[in-house]
Amino acid sequence: MSLKLDENLDVRLVSMLRDEGFDVDTVRDEGLSGSSDEVIYQVCRDSRRVLVTLDLDFANPVRYPPEPTEGIVVVRVPRPLLGLIRATLLDALPEIKSGPLKGSLWIVEPGRIRVHEHRKGNGEEESE
Fold first, then answer.
1. d(C-alpha 22, C-alpha 14), whole Å
2. How far apart (Å, rounded) are the C-alpha atoms in residues 103 and 65?
3. Which of 66, 98, 110, 113 has the fewest CB atoms inside 10 Å of its own CB, making it the most exposed?
């Protein structure tokens, strides 16, 4: 699975994720630091990478619809400390590896993962 770490995540997480078998690059590596959320969203779509971020703006599925993406993972921790972020991600990795990330939004919190479910309109069935 290919991931892109947003600039708000410590680059020391890259080696941990690579050790877990992920193909990881970062917003910083691509020279995209300071780019708008819209640019980061589009780059992830174009490069077919799952965005991993602390930015709660990406938790808004209306503004950043996950359906056309490889997935969006928003890590939500009470304090943005490296140890807490690392532990939260490590706990979630088995589900991330096995779960259907494509087209979905995952909110990863300590001890909990919430998955945004796509709601279909115009008489189509809803997924639950």
1. 9
2. 8
3. 98
- Paired tokens of 107: 């909110």
| Class of the CATH-defined domain 2-116 | alpha beta
User: What residue ranges do the domains of the chain occupy?
Assistant: 2-116
The token pair at 10 is 């410590």
CA-CA distance, 78 to 70, in Å (whole number)? 26
List 112's β-bridge partners, or say none: 109
pLDDT in tens, 55-88: 999 999 999 999 999 999 999 999 989 999 999 9
H or E stretch at 38 = helix 37-47
Looking up tokens 């077919």, which residue turns up? Answer: 48
pTM above 0.85, yes or no: yes
Tell which residue, 77, 75, 120, 115, has the closest CA to residue 99.
Answer: 115
Look-up of token digits 């490590």? 90
